[in-house]
Amino acid sequence: MNRFLKIAIRNLLKGPTTDPYPFGATFIPDNLRGKLEVEASACTACGTCEEVCPSGAIHITQNDGIYVHTTWYNTCCYCGNCEFFCPTGAIKLTNNFHTANTKEEKFKFVTTTFIAQKECIECGVKFTPPSAELITRAYPKVNEEIENLNKLCPECRKKLAFERLYKCMKH
Amino acid sequence: MSIITRSPFLFRINTGSCNGCDVELATTAMIPRYDVERLGCRYTGSPKHADILLVTGPITARSKPYLLEVLDELPRPFVTVAIGTCPASCGIFRDSYSIEGPLDKYIEVDVNVPGCPPRPQAIIDGVAKALEIWKMKIRGQK
Q1: ipTM of the complex
Q2: pLDDT at A20
Q3: What is the mean pLDDT of residues B72-83?
Q4: Pairing mode, if any, of strands A110-116 and A58-63?
């Protein structure tokens, strides 16, 4: 009897257990896998996410000088493979779970990110440089030389490397 | 002009779902924590009473004739809600030989709630949207 009274009083004080959503705030776990977010400065448009996506939700298309990263949520299964395999850590799944959409917005229910290409300082060709996140992962110490090489397109970088090799061999 | 004051009935069809979405639907309806009946609707067991149709699963070849049979039995107008990624676009099963989906091949889908499975809160969102569409449909505005 004593135990029963304890529970009854506790339940009276606690109030209803019903989640107030959609009329109030709800509890959202931090690790909930919801809509994703792409950090445009960290992304190198390598296409790993497109490759590993089991439901084909991610597409990367190239317009001139810009890459468009599109995620369509009506086929996304929120597995988090893109976040797990992203080599630069540009993709992060947020805990945004608001996915209900009407038929008018079915094909507009996407996240679009634009990844701009850079111009080579030598020849002016547009290219996608490795992002700062990728460089810090590849090299233990990032010095000025690496940063300068990052401003060149792959062709110019090749040329510079061979020039340097030629000079070494001459001496 | 409020000609209709009645409450809508929810009816759900499982068309070869993995049961994940069905568990979430049961959670939304049956436990007091999420309580979809606060929105003024409740589940029914008969398609002849239904106003809002909830579909889960990617429409397998096996379940397709039963789905079409039930769709014929529903009174018009009704609102269709696709629960989960499968009925919306077939998701990971999209190119399978035994999948006859997505759902909009057979019927107009008014609300999609993607997720694998969607959260109970997302399902409540979808039902709330479906309720608005149902009210508009019943007044002949849509």
Answers
A1: 0.83
A2: 84
A3: 90
A4: unpaired
Q: Does B109 touch chain A (CB under 8 A)?
A: yes
| Three-state secondary structure of chain A | CHHHHHHHHHHHHHCCCCCCCCCCCCCCCCCCCCCEEECCCCCCCCCHHHHHCCCCCEEEEEECCEEEEEEECCCCCCCCHHHHHCCCCCEEECCCCCCCEEHHHCCCCEEEEEEECEECCCCCCEECCCCHHHHHHHCCCCCHHHHHHCCCCHHHHHHHHHHHHHHHHHC
Q: What is the pLDDT of residues B93-139, one digit of tens each?
A: 888 899 987 888 899 899 999 988 899 999 999 999 999 999 888 88
**What is residue B2's predicted lDDT score, i.e. its pLDDT?**
57
Given a cut of 50, the residues of chain A with pLDDT beneath it are none
pLDDT recorded at residue B142: 62
CA-based nearest distance B126→chain A, Å: 5
Which amino acid is it at A6? K
Domains of chain B by start residue, with CATH:
9-134 (3.40.50.12280)
Q: Which residue of A has its CA nearest to B107?
A: A103
Give percent of chain A with pLDDT exceeding 70: 100
Please answer yes or no on whether B32 and A98 come within 8 Å at the CB atom: no
Q: Which domains does chain A have, with CATH numbers?
A: 28-170 (3.30.70)
Cβ of A100 within 8 Å of Cβ of B90? The answer is: no
**Residue B118 touches partner A, C-beta closer than 8 Å:** yes
B124: enclosing H helix or E strand? helix B120-138
Q: What is the torsion angle, in degrees rounded to the nearest 10, for the CA atoms of residue B71, residue B77, residue B82 and residue B86?
A: 30
Measured on CA atoms in the order B24, B26, B30, B31, is the torsion positive or negative?
Answer: negative
> From the list B114, B122, B123, which residue is nearest A74 (CB)?
B114
